[in-house]
Amino acid sequence: MQSMHSAGERTARGNLSGRKQAGWLHYFANPGRFARFARPILPWLGAVSALLVVIGIVWGYAFAPADFQQGNAARIMYVHVPAAWVSMSGYAMLALCSFFSLVWRHPLADIAAEEIGPVGAGFTFICLVSGALWGRPTWGTYWVWDARLTSVLILFFLYLGHIALVRGFESRERGYRAGAILALAGVVNLPIIVFSVQWWNTLHQGNSFSLSGSSIYPSMLYPLLVATLGFYLCFLTLVLARVLAAIMERKTSSLLLANAERDA
Amino acid sequence: MIEHLDPWPFINGAYGISVLFLAGTALLTWRRLRQAAKRLAQTEAS
Amino acid sequence: MLKPKTRRLYMFSALLLGFGGATALALVGFSSSLTYFLSPRQVAAHAPPAGETFRLGGIVEAGTVQTTQTGESLTTRFDVTDGQAAVPVVYTGVLPDLFGVGQGVVTIGALGPDGAFHADEVLAKHGSTYMPRDVAQSLKNAGKWNPKFGPAPGPDALGSTS
To answer: I need a labelling partner for A250 at 20 to 30 A (CA). Which of A61, A110, A121, C24 fits?
Structure first.
């Protein structure tokens, strides 16, 4: 472990050579330093998020009351809504990382953007599938092309496009640049998703949450909030673990390269 | 005539795919992290 | 002379603003085609020509639901209202679980020569209010039911599932 950190120090210092460091964001933008800080947090984060997801899901599936209108079908809310929120917040994180990558060229922002993509796409997929399974028994159809459903499908394609673009270039730098521009351009889709149900007539119901509160009864709201917190922490755990793995993979390949050069 | 659908297959499907996704990605991520740490330790030792 | 970092910050912020503004303008321009359904009021104002398929959305008006059986198939007639105008709808087929008086629906079809909307498909639209049945019942009993919650529970709701 100790030797890994010193190796990280070396490569990280190489990355940041000749660059002034200012502020805590820049401080943690150093991948080696970030890894040393994040590694001990990961098991705790993983344990708490697993616990919250299990509580939220079991509560929603078995113990929350059936809805006065939709009956038991409303239970799908406890996986659909957290997945939807996480997929949108994940995209906001992706866009933020892309902005940092484009403006300040932070190596950690590139790694984070690359690793957020597949996790965010997964949560968006869960949102779409659970939504379709909710639509059939309540609306009478799996899918309609209304503004809400279509804009979430576009979010899914933005994630897929980012995944492909980041990995689709011979030069890693060029892929990061292209992916970051796509991610930033796609940010306009986020307010469209949120406000689609207010701006246009949609089959999807309106937002249950507003600045004045929620229109969900407390016995159904609490499991929803627990599940949401669990999904959020799950997303953070997965992304953090993937970023740590990516940092170690990079260190391994740069060490291998250095060894090969030394032996040659 | 109103269709009375049993919602439980749909509920089970939505929960099933969510749990499969969360457990599956957690497992894959954990294996990748362990593999990356092992490789790094091996490379540093050599 | 700006530092490259600062220049990039301004450039990408400006790009983001410009792209966001362009998208907003495009959305305002295409607003009508992004609307999933027309309300009875819009149909009353500019009715699409007979035979042209469109979507009509609104609330199923109380006291207008009639079902007639011809052979195997069931035909349902009801009025869709938005509180200001109403359009009569004719539909033959199976209605979704949530269909009922006071319930939101979106129907897909076309106006016929008789002035009625002949629907090929009826979808139920539900509200964004969630509460347990006993709470809904006691709210209604206490006379505190807010119509924006959706149709009140009770025997008058045709589609109530229990």
So the answer is: A121
